[in-house]
Write a sequence for this structure.
């Protein structure tokens, strides 16, 4: 590791692509969503988190210059229990369309540039993670945003915490390595 001056650090990162969260207050706190960075958002208010997720997915597709987007595709992964009848855990196309219209982008454009997948249990989560990495590694698509919702769902609900912790570490390790290679 080499020591750098603040000016060198500034020059190194001044061309980093940044995307708005849709909230000027949050953007000012975290300096927007920066390409190549990892962000963890959590909380008890599902409506706020869902709004943030929908906004990020839409904003990723927006043009860079006029709207502070990434002008790229996005990938959304949700982890939910298969047996749950709660449909609110599924990505809502209607909310995506409303968010797109508010951002002044045609919803069809968003849907064409958005991949979505769900994992229904811990074993499926690992399989989905490997599929995500294959998609990212293939470089067929310009994906600059990966949103993983409820990643600890199966750990929290598990009776065997040791097994679940190891499975979660494996999923995080695979995703981290793939994203580091892709710089998403």
């Amino acid at each position: 590791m080499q020591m750098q001056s603040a000016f060198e650090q500034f020059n190194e990162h001044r061309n980093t692509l940044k995307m708005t969260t849709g909230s000027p207050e949050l953007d000012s706190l975290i300096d927007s969503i920066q390409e190549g960075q990892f962000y963890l958002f959590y909380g008890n208010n599902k409506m706020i988190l869902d709004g943030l997720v929908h906004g990020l997915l839409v904003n990723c597709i927006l043009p860079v210059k006029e709207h502070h987007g990434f002008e790229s595709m996005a990938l959304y992964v949700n982890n939910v229990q298969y047996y749950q009848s709660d449909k609110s855990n599924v990505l809502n196309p209607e909310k995506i369309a409303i968010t797109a219209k508010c951002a002044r982008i045609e919803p069809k454009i968003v849907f064409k540039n958005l991949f979505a997948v769900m994992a229904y249990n811990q074993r499926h989560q690992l399989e989905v993670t490997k599929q995500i990495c294959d998609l990212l590694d293939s470089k067929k698509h310009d994906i600059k945003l990966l949103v993983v919702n409820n990643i600890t769902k199966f750990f929290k609900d598990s009776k065997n915490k040791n097994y679940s912790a190891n499975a979660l570490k494996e999923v995080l390790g695979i995703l981290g390595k793939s994203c580091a290679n892709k710089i998403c």
